[in-house]
Specification:
By secondary structure, this protein is α/β, with parallel strands linked by helices. Helices cover 23% and strands 25% of the residues. Strand 4 (103-107), helix 4 and strand 5 (125-128) form a beta-alpha-beta unit. The two termini are 29 Å apart.
């Protein structure tokens, strides 16, 4: 075991529309909008994956998008695929269960033993992290100590993004801006679940880079958390 308290450096990377949406509508795959990214931006995404030791997405994103989460457009090794899933309810046909890259499923103590056994039979690492739900802080320490993850990217949906930010686990954010407006009161946005009453509690971002990647604007930020 390594030193307690260590965790990977985390980059949250996402495409968003001009009105901050991740998908066309609730339940729709983000791939619908991602197909409008320029080729150069797709290469940037895969180059970023190749530069990381792990990539994390939520279980709901796996169910909707069924992504491979591998490096394909550039030379490089595919990172460890990390999926928090309290009940281990990953679809049997999920591409992340395939042999293209190693996969780790983080589960809670409520996960049915038969589901855990089925995942392990597929060659997947299953790590208990939490009682009723996933303890993300513990998961980050496990990734650092047991899987030598030093740099991780998150391509999550609004729920995972919120929990990662809520627990102050995100260090950087990189956004790919898509020139569309989709609207909708319940359309998923970059961060869901967060409601801040006081401006002192806002999570602030410091812009450190902005550039065109093909036809897409990309912005990069450091994350500044409020004082506790």
């Amino acid at each position: 075991m390594g030193d307690p308290g260590h965790r990977p450096h985390v980059l949250l990377m996402s495409e968003i529309t001009a009105d901050g949406r991740l998908t066309l509508k609730r339940g729709a795959s983000s791939k619908i909008l991602m197909k409008y990214m320029s080729h150069e931006t797709e290469v940037l995404l895969h180059r970023t994956r190749a530069a990381c030791d792990a990539i994390m997405v939520g279980a709901n994103t796996i169910r909707i998008d069924n992504s491979f989460l591998t490096v394909r457009l550039v030379e490089g090794k595919s990172p460890l695929r990390v999926v928090p899933s309290s009940l281990a309810d990953i679809p049997d046909d999920a591409n992340v269960l395939g042999p293209a890259a190693p996969t780790l499923i983080a589960v809670s103590s409520r996960a049915p033993t038969e589901r855990v056994a089925a995942l392990r039979a597929r060659g997947v690492s299953v790590v208990p992290c939490g009682e009723d739900r996933i303890n993300l802080v513990s998961l980050m320490e496990t990734l650092w100590n047991d899987f030598s993850v030093r740099r991780m990217m998150v391509e999550g949906g609004p729920t995972l993004n919120w929990h990662m930010l809520h627990h102050r686990l995100v260090d950087e954010i990189r956004l790919i801006h898509l020139p569309f407006i989709v609207g909708g009161d319940d359309t998923p946005s970059l961060v869901g679940g967060m409601h801040i009453d006081r401006e002192e509690d806002m999570i602030r971002l410091t812009l450190k880079a902005h550039y065109l990647c093909g036809t897409n604007l990309v912005t990069e930020y450091d994350v500044i958390y409020p004082r506790e």
